[in-house]
Amino acid sequence: MSDWDGTAYRRVNSLQQWLADQVLRSLHLDGVESLLDVGCGDGRITAEIAARIPEAQVVGLDPSPRMISVAPAGGRLSFELGEVCSMRYRQRFDAVVSFNALHWVADQRRALERIVAALRPGGWAFLVFVCAGPRASIEDVAMRVAATPRWSEQFADFEPPFVHPEVAGWSSLATSCGLAIKGCVVQEVAWDFGSREAFSQWCAVGFGAWTDRLDAADAVDFVAEVVLAYEAVSEAPGLFRCQQLRAELERVPVV
């Protein structure tokens, strides 16, 4: 996974913060003594959760060193560098949450297995990520642009750094990994950045997997092409749309 710039992310993460705020309002934390936030990014949302359960041990995990470097650790709130598929936690947490990070994990089965392993008996998970929908995603459009004649040589061996699962298939996968589905909601999210320029700035932070292959000038041009091409999907300049899955899960007791 690309090493996202935590400082730049904080300047453009109003969408992620807004999405998390919608979820946090309905997140019930009564009785939680330990919680893991997978793909915590810059740690702001993790810190908000920790403030709601000050007696609990809260851990944020993210694979990006530059994200972790700006995370606000302190007290019973800590942050660790690592990937969900490599987690070695064993029955350590009452709850695992993840907000718009898991669609960057190719091996969904491994991720879910490690989340189950990290949960204590009776523990629960609340996972939010981008799933498949009727429209092409911004990442789908980026892959299409990468395949055009101007860019195809730079991306000749490039594999998609994301996965947007079908809801039914992902739900079956979660069940097979030892999670009972208590709730599953899919909704379309729309966010108006106000301009192509603002949308491009947001994309530039999250497109590291693509732009790390390009020099600085080409990276700017690539993002601009993606943003322009995406307007055929969103139907308006600066408008972002995605399908978001919110899954409430519980670890199945081992018999």
TrEMBL record:
It holds the Pfam family Methyltransf_25. One of its GO terms (biological process) is methylation. Residues 36-123 form the Methyltransferase domain. Its EC number is 2.1.1.-. Keywords: Methyltransferase, Transferase. The keyword Translocase does not apply. CDD domains: AdoMet_MTases (cd02440). InterPro entries: Methyltransf_25 (IPR041698), SAM-dependent_MTases_sf (IPR029063). It is an enzyme of class 2 (transferase). The keyword Lipid metabolism does not apply. SUPFAM superfamilies: S-adenosyl-L-methionine-dependent methyltransferases. One of its GO terms (molecular function) is methyltransferase activity. This is Putative methyltransferase. It comes from Microlunatus phosphovorus (strain ATCC 700054 / DSM 10555 / JCM 9379 / NBRC 101784 / NCIMB 13414 / VKM Ac-1990 / NM-1).
